[in-house]
Amino acid sequence: MSVARQARSVCADARLDPAAYDRDVSLTVEERSALEALARLWGRCPREPRWPDGARAALTRLRAPIDDVLFLLADSQRWAHWPARFALLMAMRAEDEAFWGWDRDTWVAVLRGSNKDVRQHVMAVAYLLCGFRDLHREVRGFRCGRFARRVFGAEPVDCAVGRVQAHLDGLGHAVLLQRPNLQGALYDLMLVVGSPLLEDIAACGELLAEAHSREQNNARRYGVEQLARTLVAMGVLESLPFGGTVTREQWLERSRAGDGVPGEWFGWVHRWFLTSTLSRNGRERMYYMLIKAGRWLAAEHPDRADPRSWTRELAAAWVAAVDQMIVGDFSRAPNTDAFRARRGGPLSARSKSQHISMLGAFFCDLQEWEWIERRFDPRRALAVPRSIRALIGPDPRVIADDIWAKLLWAGLNLTEPDLPVHANANTGRPWYPLELVRAVAMLWLFGGLRVDEILRLRLGAVRWQHQNADGDDNARAVCLLDVPTNKTGTGFTKPVDRTVGEAIEAWEAVRPVQPAFTDRKTGETVQLLFAYRGASLGKAYVNRVLIPLLCRKGGVPTEDVRGRITGHRARATIATQLYNAKEPMSLFELQAWLGHRWVGSTQHYARITPTTLAKAYTEAGYFARNLRAIEVLLDRDAIQAGTAGGGKPFECYDLGHGYCTYSFFEQCPHRMACARCDFYLPKASSEAQLLEAKQGMQRMLVEIPLTDDERAAVEGDQNAVGRLIDLLADTPTPAGPTPRALDDTSHEPVMPAPRDLDVVPADARCAAPASDPRDGA
């Protein structure tokens, strides 16, 4: 018989056959007296005491099976045998019965009360003689691997571990110690099944399923799942004895979120959770929100725990309570650093909207399924107020160009020393190979994919399309990426940069053969691209490992003015850059590239950058359209002589039919429809002729801003000229009189008084209308 078979048949050995011992539960008078004498001696002798007279013989019935178990253990710690024997004898003295009659609770109490150095020897008695094979689950910190080697022997246990290790080595470099949850699941099932053989463990598929459903810790439950998948891949187990995901009933049984919730409300929420057809994530988010509403009911309206008693007034009270709610109210969220930083602050507008709309959806479902009477309309009574909706809008949070450029450089220059080493690894090697990390980084930096799409890419997702008929022009080949089904639509194909395709092909060249996985969205059995050591890439890898790695490599912080740099921000950044490129993609082209079902979703990502907006604004010519250049004559002699400071005119604006000597011409409302005031100088006059002939005159151009009416008049709209004249009929001129008063005095232009020609500007030409609007020009 092999060592493993011998280990499996330990309990069947004649010396350890429970039926071969006296299993009477009651203690005799002699046994009680011997136990009392032994207890008195132990207090004076810390090591194994000398047996009192007659005590060894009196306790033969009780210590014989214990000694047989201790003798058969594959253990070199003989010094611990007496403390273990004494602990059991003293426990029988305290319970006043032999250990054969102890129930599970008594054994657990004895184990927890014993010294940690002898606890495994005490456990061996319960395991080998009394048939309690799962007591190790009740003792925190119990070392199952050491106990399995003591019970079954080191050789058969190491043989089973070696078989699992050899298979994992074929999936990628993996020391079993780096998978403590898988290793713990293996030792646990060895003890529960009673054999170290993998075939015996696989034969008890119901125990695997029970261990998977019993575990409330996600990591340990995943370890059971890893072990089952490994046994299936090794051919030891035909198929998984449980589903790939936790069922709704198992999730509810493990969930402790119902604390403080009225039982009646929790019953309705439980029933809804088992009936709803929402996605898993959406159903869980809504479940926790409904539990929060139940705690609010218990605190504010304990008599309204039944959804059938809800009215419009109570719905309005919930909306008002949510609007005033702060972070942490009616919540049992984990006390993490991020939660502590936000505790006590107001809820965000999005959180308020979810609290209100999710409760409305809950009542809509109950009414549509005819579980409750329709007493109010949830779509109206639990509608999100406009004051909250106004604060919610698309926020793609584009990463600044300088930070994004450094992240691109970091991704393109990744080396193996940059990769983090796994905490449990003793080899000094990173947990994932460089080719895998680089491929994921290129997809995040250039692919414009959601994180879920990156993790669910399948093997062979990259293909090349050549642009010529021969197909040998590699320099011009286009890299196409097959994107799996996403949250808005079915799978599609998109072009990506060649760097992405080359990085993926480099990873596929060194990727070990991996088992098939179930696509969590479609339910298909597929070969995932990013799988290593028999496991798919973790959901939090991009946000918690890859992005901090790139930020550290590029010398940029993990947060900017828009918040923490996350996986989805790269998608918004790439879309914005493509939309603002020199030859930009159209909105519909960008929609197809991002994989959006509706173009409105693409508009949330395609933000126009301030640089592009400024360029378009400049090219629109808004300022040039509202400016006109007009010639002006400057009398340099008057300026140099200082006579201009005495109030004499030194500049003259050319109106075509005359000159305007008003110094603040750009402020005059009649500048484009001159009213012939005292500052007007006709060109036909002798003074104008002397002005044009004077030496020392400088001709210049001045830009004058125009109103809409003035611009229309300048552009030749005769009706606009008339409207402008009528509009300014009662507006005073710089000289004082209005155009209407000037018309009443004389229809002829009013000639200004003769001025000193030393301060009169020289002649000029003007870009204004060449004829007087009053003359019908």
List the helices and strands and how they pair.
Layout: H1 3-8, H2 29-42, H3 55-58, H4 60-72, H5 81-95, H6 104-113, H7 119-128, H8 144-152, H9 154-171, H10 180-193, H11 198-203, H12 205-214, H13 218-234, H14 248-254, H15 263-275, H16 280-300, H17 312-323, H18 337-342, H19 349-368, H20 378-381, H21 386-389, H22 401-412, H23 434-447, H24 451-455, E1 462-465, E2 478-483, E3 492-496, H25 498-510, E4 517-518, E5 525-526, E6 531-532, E7 535-536, H26 541-554, E8 559-560, E9 563-564, H27 567-579, H28 587-594, H29 599-605, H30 610-619, H31 622-625, E10 627-635, H32 636-641, E11 651-654, E12 658-660, E13 680-682, H33 686-693, E14 697-705, H34 708-714, H35 718-727, H36 739-745
Antiparallel strand pairs: 1-2, 2-3, 4-5, 6-7, 8-9, 10-11, 10-14, 11-12, 12-13
Helix pairs in contact: 4-7, 6-7, 8-9, 10-13, 12-13, 15-16, 16-19, 22-23, 22-26, 23-25, 23-26, 23-27, 28-29, 34-35
Written description of the protein model:
It contains 36 helices and 14 strands. The strands form 5 sheets. A 5-stranded antiparallel beta sheet has the order 13-12-11-10-14. The chain folds into 5 domains: about 5-140, no CATH class; about 155-245; about 250-390, no CATH class; about 400-605, hpI Integrase, Chain A (Orthogonal Bundle); about 625-775, no CATH class. The radius of gyration is 44 Å and the shape is elongated. With about 775 residues, the protein is α+β, with helices and mostly antiparallel strands.
